[in-house]
Design a protein that fits this description.
Length: 114
Amino acid sequence: MTQMPPMERIWFIVNLIPEGTVLPYGIVADLAGLPGRARYVSRALKLAPKTLALPWHRVINSQGKISFEKYSEPFQTQLELLRLEGIKVNAGKILLSQYQWKPDLATLVMTLPF
DNA sequence: CTAGTGACCAACG
DNA sequence: ACGTTGGCCACTA
């Protein structure tokens, strides 16, 4: 039985993030079984096939901010997508205490195919 | 092989 | 609230 590759595990987790919620890169890495590898998450998202249609915009950094350069094209796109799902962004910041997805870990772990 | 580069992060000052 | 620093590691030139 081959392990699901790290990058696929990251895509799997991101795909589970519910609408109207967000998750920091580092937490995605943790849930994917790759603690301390937040940078790998950003790389995995960049390389993700468009056909997967992942909710990539729900992944933000640990400070509640969008990680693209301010005013850049992808920055604006992510900001708009987040607001479309009712996520408030004030002064470029998202309140993690309000919007961070907090899955029931026991249940989630049983669901994961890895 | 080495050096630079990230959609990062926690710890400091 | 910032800016810096050291750690992280796959990928690229």
